[in-house]
Amino acid sequence: MSELLAFDQVTAGYGDAVVLDRMSFSLEAGKSLAILGRNGVGKTTLLETLMGHTRVMSGSIRWNGQDITRMPSHRRARSGLGWVPQEREVFPSLTVEENLTVVATPGPWNLKRVYELFPRLQERRSNYGNQLSGGEQQMLAIGRALMTNPKLLLLDEPMEGLAPIIVEELALVVKLLCESEGLASVVVEQHPVLTLSMTHHAIVLERGQVVHAGHSQALAEDTHLLHGLLGVGQRPQPSRPSMDAPAGYTLLPQGA
Ligand SMILES: Nc1ncnc2c1ncn2[C@@H]1O[C@H](COP(=O)(O)OP(=O)(O)OP(=O)(O)O)[C@@H](O)[C@H]1O
């Protein structure tokens, strides 16, 4: 598999404040990566740095065969980085359908396929962004990122504030997007066990540095390490999401 994304000794932050400290990691095409760590360690800043919203003081970022360290953010957004921001940023005065079509870029993902993935959005197609529940807004934020036909989906705490049933459904969708569609993803989350169950690889951050990198499954099974790194994993954890499609979701046919 070829390299899709690599941070090489990246030091970055806001103004003079350093948040990411010589950070290195890489991601292969079609793979998923969990970014874990306690509050304030720099997880969101990592995504913001990839999108070009911070000041990079040293190091380099390679994306899809190109050095993008100095590339302006508006060009990165159009280069196949499908960003689902923490605040979702759904357009409140546009309908669901307008939210989706306004960002549409030619490619395999279109309105029909997003509605197949999220039938709930089709039901709500004429509702305005500000009339949606939190779960529906998150589906719309993911659907909107897919409409840009990304090579990589960047999800910043996609499960935050959502009901457990919606969290499980969204986790399954993200996992399926990777496994059936070959779409790479980077998932920043506060739920380590769930996030490890959805991803191939994981890195754990502490004070802007990578303190652990490895396979997600291995970390999920090492409760002692998980507890030491994140303060979780000593008690029985929720099971991995089932690979059966939850009610209301349509799995996309392979290669469709
Ligand atoms: N726009 C900003 N300007 C200045 N400092 C910032 C800014 N955004 C974040 N920071 C600081 O950068 C550090 C890392 O924050 P970041 O949001 O990246 O952490 P995080 O791991 O995503 O945390 P959380 O899990 O709480 O969202 C914090 O000390 C935070 O105060």
UniProtKB/TrEMBL annotation:
GO MF terms, alphabetically ordered: ATP binding; ATP hydrolysis activity; branched-chain amino acid transmembrane transporter activity
UniProt xrefs under PANTHER family: ABC TRANSPORTER ATP-BINDING PROTEIN, HIGH-AFFINITY BRANCHED-CHAIN AMINO ACID TRANSPORT ATP-BINDING PROTEIN LIVF
UniProt entry tagged with the keyword Metal-binding: no
Top-rank taxon, per record: Bacteria
SMART domains hit by this protein: AAA (SM00382)
Keywords: Amino-acid transport, ATP-binding, Cell membrane, Membrane, Nucleotide-binding, Transport
Location of region: Disordered: 234-256
Protein name (database record): ABC transporter ATP-binding protein
Domain ABC transporter: 5-232
Pfam families registered for this protein in UniProt: ABC_tran (PF00005)
Organism: Parazoarcus communis SWub3 = DSM 12120
Gene Ontology biological-process entries: L-amino acid transport
Family of this protein: Belongs to the ABC transporter superfamily.
